[in-house]
Protein: Formate--tetrahydrofolate ligase
Organism: Spirodela intermedia
Amino acid sequence: MAPPKTARKLQVLSPVPADIDIANAVEPLHISEIAASLDLSPSHYDLYGKYKAKVLLSVFDELQGSADGYYVVVGGITPTPLGEGKSTTTVGLCQALGAFLDKKVVTCLRQPSQGPTFGIKGGAAGGGYSQVIPMDEFNLHLTGDIHAITAANNLLAAAIDTRIFHEASQSDKALFNRLCPPNKEGKRRFADVMLRRLQKLGISKSDPDELTPDEIKKFARLDIDPDSITWRRVMDVNDRFLRKITIGQGPEEKGMTRETGFDISVASEIMAVLALTTSLADMRERLGRMVIGNSKSGEPITADDLGLGGALTVLMKDAINPTLMQTLEGTPVLVHAGPFANIAHGNSSIVADKIALKLVGPGGFVVTEAGFGADIGAEKFMNIKCRYSALVPQCAVIVATIRALKMHGGGPEVVAGRPLDHAYLSENVALVEAGCVNLARHISNTRAYGVNVVVAVNMFASDSESELNVVRSASLAAGAFDAVICTHHAHGGKGAVDLGIAVQKACESQTEPLRFLYPLDICIKEKIEAIAKSYGASGVEYSEQAEKKIEMYTRQGFSDLPICMAKTQYSFSHVPSQKGAPSGFVLPIRDVRASIGAGFIYPLVGTMSTMPGLPTRPCFFDIDIDFSTGKVLGLS
Amino acid sequence: MAPPKTARKLQVLSPVPADIDIANAVEPLHISEIAASLDLSPSHYDLYGKYKAKVLLSVFDELQGSADGYYVVVGGITPTPLGEGKSTTTVGLCQALGAFLDKKVVTCLRQPSQGPTFGIKGGAAGGGYSQVIPMDEFNLHLTGDIHAITAANNLLAAAIDTRIFHEASQSDKALFNRLCPPNKEGKRRFADVMLRRLQKLGISKSDPDELTPDEIKKFARLDIDPDSITWRRVMDVNDRFLRKITIGQGPEEKGMTRETGFDISVASEIMAVLALTTSLADMRERLGRMVIGNSKSGEPITADDLGLGGALTVLMKDAINPTLMQTLEGTPVLVHAGPFANIAHGNSSIVADKIALKLVGPGGFVVTEAGFGADIGAEKFMNIKCRYSALVPQCAVIVATIRALKMHGGGPEVVAGRPLDHAYLSENVALVEAGCVNLARHISNTRAYGVNVVVAVNMFASDSESELNVVRSASLAAGAFDAVICTHHAHGGKGAVDLGIAVQKACESQTEPLRFLYPLDICIKEKIEAIAKSYGASGVEYSEQAEKKIEMYTRQGFSDLPICMAKTQYSFSHVPSQKGAPSGFVLPIRDVRASIGAGFIYPLVGTMSTMPGLPTRPCFFDIDIDFSTGKVLGLS
């Protein structure tokens, strides 16, 4: 029996109503219907209410022998305050493919952080007639994955400080006695996770009673250097007052104070692990080898050294299953993982993409979103995500708007609260032409991976025919396979049918192999320099701190990892105000950090905030419930 | 059609295997079968995987006209390190009622905190052959309620500090302009939550443009006194280094540092709100009126003043639905809310009990657990929970063990890691007799509410006939309706059949009305003194701080709330080492705080920790996943 069709035609209104009103006006299908449209039976997923289900990883194992569909990645030009509509285009394209072009399609999206939902940005479910629904469930707890990350991250943090505290007050013998207490028969036993530490130390004994005093000391004393700790606590709230704090000031902590801070939960390395892992067993290994700092003698200390690899995996065991939702037009969506693209690798999960590619099968489409521009999300998509997943995209979509291109062409500054400048509201071909240098570099950078590029111009009513033609020509000149005008915000999937057709053609004619920007076996600096060159930089400048850290990570054996640049998304360079396609600058590397569990080295290009703040009037003022309908109000 | 029977007979082994092994050996029924046994159809609940479902509050509305079942509360004697098995008895009693006595029964339990699960205590799903399953899901994220509380609590905390920050740097006019910005047409609008603040201020205008400069100042400037802030951040992790911290040390926070700290999430007032609320609309009101501190002029500042009542409700909208699970013998369990009993009111939710009473109907039983002894959980059950719910229990079960009574009778100290003293392992009738003073006071205190008391002696193999007889006689002499020996840990429901029969008789013969310990309309001190008297105290001593706070809360109009004593659970008095039934002591009140949203004043009797720590070898060392079966290992 063919799976039921779930595609649903929309009644669109003009002018386009508020996002939440559009979302609330559509009654979503029961998620089991969406699942059935992908040939999933109830044993393949766990329901979370009526409109969300977690698809179990076992689905991938079952389908391992079958062929994949086409793999499409959506990125954007360099973002501006005017917005490009990247998520909206991702959703609109899928609504076109699924509801109008009769293709099997799955949209793979990142789970948004709850912090910005209540802060400035609002939700992230797309917009207009291209949205994931129910948008309140998408933007709020979803199925608890980020909460699980918060819990796991903070359990590890608590374990670090408490371990230092206990080591400070106990002799080697007492410490060992507490770590491996004798049972009723006087017999000691190592927990499984302790055997990993013994192995790392080169101690091949499994009976605690056989350890020599020196081995006992090596095993029981992690001797963490408090100044070396890179592991911070996290919270999924925009709480700027936690950026820098002093902990341990209670009298019971005996003066063991330490300066540290909180990041927003999506910045946790555990989020990056979730996004990059390929199986439950692989996640167990990655979580266990996360490095939290060094011992006083300079050896990396891991979560497994602290005894936590198994417990963290248990906390994350449901989070590893992607969440199935639906678009306004009834096409399936997998929401999974949500690392930020400026401070992490900014892509949704490998496991969701892999499952989706099997579910759509040959001729079907998986459309996945990478954060921000080609310098940020797409570069990391190719060099980190595809390297770990071994998946190869057939097409990259780059989303642009006439307004944003005008800004890249030198258009006036946009200030929140002030009316938009005339330049953005009426025809100005010269500005658009000038701005196309930004788009062109995103195209050529992406083409360099050997992938076909389709430009999607997300159209506004004020865009003129001449302006749109300029973008089309510039795109083709820069090497794009095609450039298409879309109106999915106003019309849903119907407005992205041309884009869908172009993407299909691009996929069908893709023949080149995926070419990475750098091999893994060159040194850290060479890799950084390869990426910097792709930004347009003429060179790289390292701080003393960065030099030291590169040396340290190399000495610790981590130099063969890929690189994840932490850089502003607002420019190809490190200076957010440099629009267009800057070149000839020297990229400064302020510091270098490492996410060993996730599997990358991340150089910090300037200072990136890892904890947003709340404005004077946060979004939360408008968020409430209508008790008569039970609907959430005021989400945007 | 009669609902399907789900009761299932257990194959019990001797000696009793580890809790997790018993739990993993039973394949749970799909939760829809458990739901069907309560006449619930799929529209009444949301599935969360195969073994958990959230029962929607609308069920209560549907059944509002139908009659309630019997309402049984389970408490214990004063706890000792030897344990009493209160949760185990609660579950065992229900397995007896449901699987052996053919009664409709629902067990109402608190959700355990994840902190202790990975710390010292381990899980809280009962034990032996009386457990809630799957025990890993019970002890871990469950359906995300505690995570929702953490998120809501911390959003409010972030809003407090950020508001102070923004008020410090902006003029009244700028502040008002940001809070009520003009839209494109230049028109300003108050958010709904702002109208609440205007009403509180006695400003009956709804057009922002009509406010006078003085009204603008009153409206826009909360003028929070940083030293008065009682709202702390929370985390569901045992992180002792967060007990006392300094926040705001980042350069962007401009020197606005403040000393504060984190509590464990279950200590959040939002947890108490969840436990005591009666509907979504009631929860909205309670969340909005939570007081976070005072203005510099001494007025209480609420979550609604900060603009958050609606947003907090949205974060908590799914958490208000109780989670349906099952016991080892297939009887239904509602898990909902988990405030600690020493620092909060220590009872599961009103909404779960109310729904359960309708679901079991006349002749059925709802067994709900109150934390610790009659001084802690049961007193608060009667005077706070039943006062807000208007429900009346027909029977109170008090759980005791011979071992624990021996300790109350003067038995030797129990030290973790050292072998148990001989006194606890062989007959010692004199110690048991002496210890029964503790049990007797719990019985008489509970009888004072007009409720029938049944004592459940949770039997160990080492207990002698004479020892058990002593407890029976002492119980009856103290006014108990009955006293019964139980072996549900070893035998499941079958071991609690006598208890089930006694509880049924106690319920059927209950005739007295519920008598509260104090009326609400006396002053705060008189209420505190009534409770202290029930502890055996001869008087109460107030610190200067406590005197000031009582005066303040009285002036602020909060003196008619019930009292929730924050007191050690290890003694009737404030001194944990005073076992048995101490009397004649003077109860010291160190400080007085208030949970205005939850609806109680809480005096602090001594210093209670609101953030546990981790030991040198926390439970997490043993927690892992068996990748071949997917089962969680090492939970206890």
